[in-house]
Amino acid sequence: MAFAEVSEIQQEHHQKVKQVYSEVAKVVVGQEYMVNRLLVGLFTNGHILLEGVPGLAKTLTISTVARVLHLDFSRIQFTPDLLPADLVGTMIYNQKEGKFEVKKGPIFANIVLADEINRSPAKVQSALLEAMQEKQVTIGETTFKLDKPFLVMATQNPVENEGTYPLPEAQIDRFMMKVFVDYPTKEHELEIMRRISNMQFSYEVNPILTKEDIFSIREAVNKVKMSESLERYIIELVTATRRPKEYKLDNEAQYIQFGASPRASINMNLAAKAVAFMDGRDYVLPEDIKEVALDVMNHRIILNYEAEADNVRTKDIIKALLTKVPITK
Fold first, then answer.
1. Which of 50, 217, 59, 78 is nearest to 149 (CA)?
2. Which of 29, 60, 111, 305 is the most buried (most CB within 10 A)?
3. Whole domain around residue 229: which residue ranges?
4. What is the pLDDT of residues 99-144, one digit of tens each?
5. 219 within domain boundaries
6. Residue 154: what are its φ and ψ, rounded to 5°?
7. In what order do the strands lie in the sheet with 151-156?
8. Do 43 and 179 belong to one domain?
9. 169 and 40 in contact (C-beta within 8 Å)?
């Protein structure tokens, strides 16, 4: 394939990605950052965990993105009485045929919204996280491959602890990124208020990307170049979370109980390439790595009780890493 032809295809993809933002904006005011991170997950085959207080349009944004991408969408409201079979499906007896048949659950979709994932017990969380990792589900004695693309967008409310089952660190590590969803700006909130009060909102959007487009973009993201010095920079950042004193992070070292897992370096590489691609480049800059470092590592660095007592947060540690860990040539 000629270089000009490849370039033309990439330009078409960039144009379509811009259109995705425009279509989502018809329904959701602001939240471009959240949309960006959902697309990064989609283009790199990574699952996303969104954390934010109620009313920030997390559910609305995810369902709108699914419609704009023309993908099968399924929403599962996690509750304390949910069973694994409610998620993956079960065997039911067909009296007419005199045999058991498979009834597939809502997990058989392209984008699965796991709403308030921390409200369900460990068995249900494990069933979902197994499907995320293996990309398959076993019902009875039959194993079913999940549709491609398959992406889990989970939400959790950081405020309420009543009746919740926090995700274990080993399971939360399977999410590519944990994204904190913030309050809208004053201007955005004013626009939201006006739209709702004047009934000037519509849930109609046009599908922009096809499955073929998504797979094609994934291939393009894989081809984004990253220099060896930037690859080593990612490794240095992740290693600094495990051995902070070697990087002159003596103050931060007292607060870190466990550093980031190898999934951090893998996902930082993928996310930086996706960000570069969406910026219209076929090469990664140091700024791309710094931009995704917080979302990739904030759920992978485990802080101790001393950090909680001193009100030190994971993002403070990551900010110090990005300041003190150098990029070696």
1. 217
2. 111
3. 224-324
4. 777 788 888 888 888 888 888 888 888 888 778 888 888 877 778 8
5. no
6. -105, 145
7. 73-77, 111-115, 151-156, 48-51, 177-180
8. yes
9. no
- Both tokens of residue 131? 């499907």
**135 inside domain:** yes
Question: 218-222: long-range contacts (C-beta < 8 A, 24 or more apart)?
Answer: 218/43, 218/44, 218/45, 220/9, 220/10, 220/13, 220/277, 221/43, 221/44, 221/270, 221/273, 221/274, 221/277, 222/273
User: Does residue 241 share a domain with residue 269?
Assistant: yes
pTM listed for this prediction: 0.85
Name residue, tokens 């894989």. 222
Cα separation, 327 vs 317, in Å, equals 18
Q: What CATH number has the domain bearing residue 267?
A: 1.10.8.80
From 214, 232, 262, the end of a domain falls on 214
Q: Establish if 329 belongs to a structural domain.
A: no
153 shares a domain with 14: yes
Q: What is the pLDDT of residues 43-77, one digit of tens each?
A: 998 899 988 877 777 888 888 888 888 888 888 88
The helix/strand/coil state of 49 is strand
